[in-house]
């Protein structure tokens, strides 16, 4: 038992050496992030709702693009953050990587959900149907399932180190599979649907629409970063609480 | 090393076919799922013939998922997995052996049963050959990808459902190319698409033969440390 | 542009406003849940650390300088 406590002591040192620094740094960074996010989102909302033209083809529905496209982008960005952190967690065993991957998942899943629903709300007036088995929509739906599976795995394995390793393996296998899945869906889709499907976004985009889109995308990204920092702080605290509780009951 | 691999495959296969091993269950499930399809959509033979390749593939996928928890769970519970981990054989090979025996006791019987069920669904006689060929190539991928899900959830009690949820997205390419190679889903109307999807199915199967054991071994290490 | 015309969104109000509204609900909801979770964990950590202070081993470095 003496060896055991020594192990946990060194583990604790390893686990908290970096997180302590992260906590101090993120604490100073967070208020700044919140302010910038709020400013960007407010500007983006103003531009996309008031200060941008209606599309000559799609009319006012083009305004849905300003939340749909950034959501879709962050859905993929979130998975990249998750898979990247998982790789770092598996290879370098960096204690923060694990935490970052876990914290990114719910945010990415939320944006995937938003991309799906806003896409559906956009598709209804444009395509005349709530859902088409279009390659992008289908891929996005599968991405949503991947997020849910990843979160479910974290939720079912109780011990954080063990859950982190298993989830990292899943995220990496997923990142290898995402291109294969996407390609197979595109292949499947081109067989079934003639190329008459309306393309979201169109070939070129006017500057008057690009500006609100970029500001919104930036605002969404900073929102992601802010929440990621906050959720990582929460996760570090949660693990500390767990260790303290175990130490207490262990005595 | 090869001998140890063979021994493990034989052992697992024997355990699976023994009474209570559950190897027959997957085929029985495959049969029942296929039998309830006409009950659900009506006995229109033309319609059934059209959807037969797709339905058979979906039923095959479900049957394969059903047996995933058998892959590592029993060995994890009685401790033999710990022994295998400390043994000389790399864990990747252990996972490969287990996936192979899973294919022998689940995938192969399902492929054998598929033409028979094709008759029930009024599958076009010309489609029998391509369907069996596609399933022969595709089912190993199901076992080897399934091993990842089974390994990830090995320490979770009743992890079978979670394993299925984790693995289904990875099965999608197998399903798409498998149905395509079998000439289902209107693919036969596109010239050359069947052969193309057979090649792609082969590629997916080869990738999963490598990816499956490596990822499953990593997942087992994560769960058992 | 009149208020009514703005809210009508060229006849697409039924699609545009739900899209923006849902985005707002999801994003604000996630933010609120994150903040609430953070507060809960911080409170728990403080309580446990305060209880632990009586023990010989020093508490982990305080990572929450704000009060």
Automatic annotation (TrEMBL), chain A:
GO biological process, one term: cytochrome complex assembly
Transmembrane segments annotated in the record for this chain: 29-50, 70-92, 104-123, 135-155, 167-189, 209-230
Signal peptide: none
Domain Cytochrome c assembly protein: 22-192
Locations listed in the record: Cell inner membrane; Membrane
Any Pfam family: Cytochrom_C_asm
One Gene Ontology cellular component annotation held by this UniProt entry: plasma membrane
Membrane among keywords: yes
Membrane topology: Multi-pass membrane protein
A GO MF label: heme binding
Keywords: Cell inner membrane, Cell membrane, Cytochrome c-type biogenesis, Membrane, Transmembrane, Transmembrane helix, Transport
Cited InterPro entries: Cyt_c_assembly, Cyt_c_biogenesis_CcmC, Cyt_c_biogenesis_CcsA/CcmC
NCBIfam families in the cross-refs: ccmC
Family: Belongs to the CcmC/CycZ/HelC family.
Its biological purpose: Required for the export of heme to the periplasm for the biogenesis of c-type cytochromes.
Name of this protein: Heme exporter protein C
């Amino acid at each position: 038992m003496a060896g055991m406590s020594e192990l946990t002591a060194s583990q604790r040192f390893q686990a908290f050496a970096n997180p302590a620094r992260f906590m101090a740094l993120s604490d100073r960074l967070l208020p700044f992030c919140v302010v910038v996010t709020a400013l960007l989102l407010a500007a983006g909302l103003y531009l996309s709702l008031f200060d941008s033209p209606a599309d000559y083809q799609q009319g006012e529905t083009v305004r849905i693009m300003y939340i749909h496209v950034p959501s879709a982008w962050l859905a993929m960005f979130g998975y990249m953050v998750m898979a990247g952190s998982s790789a770092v967690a598996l290879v370098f065993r960096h204690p923060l990587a694990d935490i970052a991957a876990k914290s990114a998942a719910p945010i990415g899943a939320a944006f995937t959900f938003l991309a799906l629903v806003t896409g559906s709300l956009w598709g209804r007036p444009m395509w005349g149907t709530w859902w088409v088995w279009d390659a992008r929509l289908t891929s996005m739906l599968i991405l949503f399932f991947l997020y849910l599976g990843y979160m479910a795995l974290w939720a079912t394995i109780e011990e954080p180190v063990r859950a982190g390793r298993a989830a990292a393996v899943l995220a990496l296998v997923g990142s290898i599979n995402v291109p294969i899945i996407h390609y197979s869906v595109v292949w499947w889709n081109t067989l079934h649907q003639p190329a008459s499907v309306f393309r979201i976004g169109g070939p070129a985009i006017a500057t008057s629409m690009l500006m609100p889109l970029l500001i919104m995308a930036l605002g969404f990204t900073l929102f992601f970063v802010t929440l990621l920092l906050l959720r990582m702080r929460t996760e570090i605290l949660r693990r500390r609480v767990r260790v303290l509780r175990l130490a207490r009951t262990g005595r | 090393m090869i001998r140890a691999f063979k021994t493990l495959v034989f052992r697992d296969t024997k355990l699976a076919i023994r009474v209570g091993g559950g190897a027959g269950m997957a085929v029985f499930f495959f049969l029942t799922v296929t039998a309830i399809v006409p009950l659900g959509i009506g006995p229109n033979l033309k319609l059934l013939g059209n959807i037969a390749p797709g339905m058979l593939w979906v039923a095959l996928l479900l049957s394969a998922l059903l047996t995933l928890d058998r892959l590592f769970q029993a060995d994890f519970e009685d401790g033999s997995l710990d022994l295998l981990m400390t043994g000389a054989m790399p864990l990747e090979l252990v996972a490969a052996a287990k996936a192979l025996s899973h294919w022998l006791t689940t995938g192969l019987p399902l492929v054998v049963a598929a033409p028979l069920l094709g008759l029930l669904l009024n599958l076009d006689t010309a489609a029998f050959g391509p369907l069996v060929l596609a399933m022969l190539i595709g089912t190993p991928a199901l076992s080897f990808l399934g091993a990842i899900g089974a390994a990830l959830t090995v320490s979770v009690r009743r992890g079978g459902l979670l394993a299925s949820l984790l693995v289904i997205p990875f099965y999608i390419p197998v399903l798409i190319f498998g149905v395509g190679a079998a000439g289902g889903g209107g693919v036969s109307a596109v010239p050359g698409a069947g052969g193309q999807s057979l090649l792609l199915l082969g590629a997916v199967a080869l990738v999963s033969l490598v990816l499956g054991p490596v990822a499953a071994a990593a997942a087992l290490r994560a769960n058992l440390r | 542009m009149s208020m009514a015309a703005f809210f009508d969104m060229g006849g697409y109000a039924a699609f545009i406003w739900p899209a923006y509204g849902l985005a707002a609900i999801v994003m604000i909801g996630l933010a609120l849940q994150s903040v609430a979770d953070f507060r809960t964990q911080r409170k728990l950590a403080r309580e446990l650390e305060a209880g632990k202070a009586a023990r010989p081993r020093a508490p982990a470095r305080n990572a929450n300088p704000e009060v």
